[in-house]
Amino acid sequence: MAGRPTSTRRERGSLSTEDILDAAFAVAGTTGVDGMSVPEVAKHMGVGVTSIYWHFRKKDDLVRSMSDRAVRTVVAALPVPTTGQDVREFLENYFRQLRDVHRRNDVLTDLTWTRIRSYSLDSTHVLYHHIEVILEFMIGAGFVPLTAWNSFSTGYTFTRGVVVGERIQHLNHSPILRDTVSKLLDHDTMPILSELLSNDGIMLAMVSDTEFDHGLRLILDGIVASGDARLRSGRG
Amino acid sequence: MAGRPTSTRRERGSLSTEDILDAAFAVAGTTGVDGMSVPEVAKHMGVGVTSIYWHFRKKDDLVRSMSDRAVRTVVAALPVPTTGQDVREFLENYFRQLRDVHRRNDVLTDLTWTRIRSYSLDSTHVLYHHIEVILEFMIGAGFVPLTAWNSFSTGYTFTRGVVVGERIQHLNHSPILRDTVSKLLDHDTMPILSELLSNDGIMLAMVSDTEFDHGLRLILDGIVASGDARLRSGRG
DNA sequence: ACCTGAACACCGTTCAAGT
DNA sequence: ACCTGAACACCGTTCAAGT
């Protein structure tokens, strides 16, 4: 009652685009990026819907700005190589962190990897400058530029596959989950999978720690081998 | 004029769920799964909107049924191993086809890999029976079951990463595309990437043929090596 | 059992103001 | 320059019928 303002109109400048983005992320955090509506963001801030349309001409523009911030958030959470660091050690840590950032925040995944909005040139610049640094580090460790690029790409793409797969699995409430598994995999028609499920603890979605660890190790082995081959031929 | 029906009401049974699915896929093909609306599907069929709601209680149910059909379509398009076939040859072909099915039809990708609906137990059964056959084949060629599973998973997940990445890139109209690339990668701040782009024809999105081929080869090398190790230790 | 229009709540977006 | 409510077209869904 005491907190209720006399004037119903906000003062000019009281509504910054950053505040709107904060609210948008808050709403998207509970409803998902798809479920987020402009009216709900407005309600969350206690402003009229149309006020938001002054700062962002279309909902698309708002989502684009969210993606922008998301890219920077992800990049900021990733490790940077230190000179002299072991390549394998760095990359393993890098891809694990890449997976973890996304696991911690679904909205980031939606905005950068599954939603279909582009982000600004500025953020793209941030992203690729970050990759440039990693390539530089790998080349310093003996990689040919193209091999460094392809190697990094492989790990990056694999990690995206894992993250997206896990995202689908969760939002799905899919029958891939443990409890319903027995109903669909009887031992008679699928002996191998049903053995793997009961004895080796795999998950049908292929995106649990087991599969990620195995895939990452396989890829890192390959990457290191291609780097070593270079070093050997370079020396010989 | 002659084609215009006298009665405005459709006869009972004239509207099958399969017909609705056909129409839904047709609409989704032009508007995308996100853009598809129930009214538009109805208009496409020349029926009232509510008629569709008799067959599918919610739009969600309709999309779920679409996902169901999508899973079967994808599985049907994938190769099946023949006894005695070379494992590497089969897997390479398999993952290439997996990528190609999705490249040919974005709607399939949306429904099975980026949209967040589950599909029926029946379709899940179809999908995993199909994987069971591949595992059986790999085990027949000397793989330990768990290694076969993990190996297959790695290739599958990597391919999903490539497909999803390409899907984002296209729907993005992103600055990752060739023409705008020069604006964001000047040679001074990103010498390595700008060299790679001009000399080696890489694509920043990391999902072109170059990166897919390299990643797939790297992964297949690793898979074959793990299979061989088994054979050697089994013999030794 | 199957098809239909009217009706409702909600969303994206625009307009014509207000300060 | 910045904030606002009224208004519009469109969507998902329900209801109360029609045959």
From TrEMBL, chains A, B:
Pfam families from the UniProt entry: TetR_C_1 (PF02909), TetR_N (PF00440)
DNA-binding region ranges: 37-56
Example of a GO MF term: DNA-binding transcription factor activity
Record-level GO BP terms: negative regulation of DNA-templated transcription; response to antibiotic
Gene3D superfamilies found in the cross-reference section: Homeodomain-like (1.10.10.60), Tetracycline Repressor, domain 2 (1.10.357.10)
Superkingdom, taxonomy of origin: Bacteria
Residue stretches making up the HTH tetR-type domain: 14-74
Keywords for the protein's UniProt record, in alphabetical order: DNA-binding, Repressor, Transcription, Transcription regulation
Name assigned to this protein: TetR family transcriptional regulator
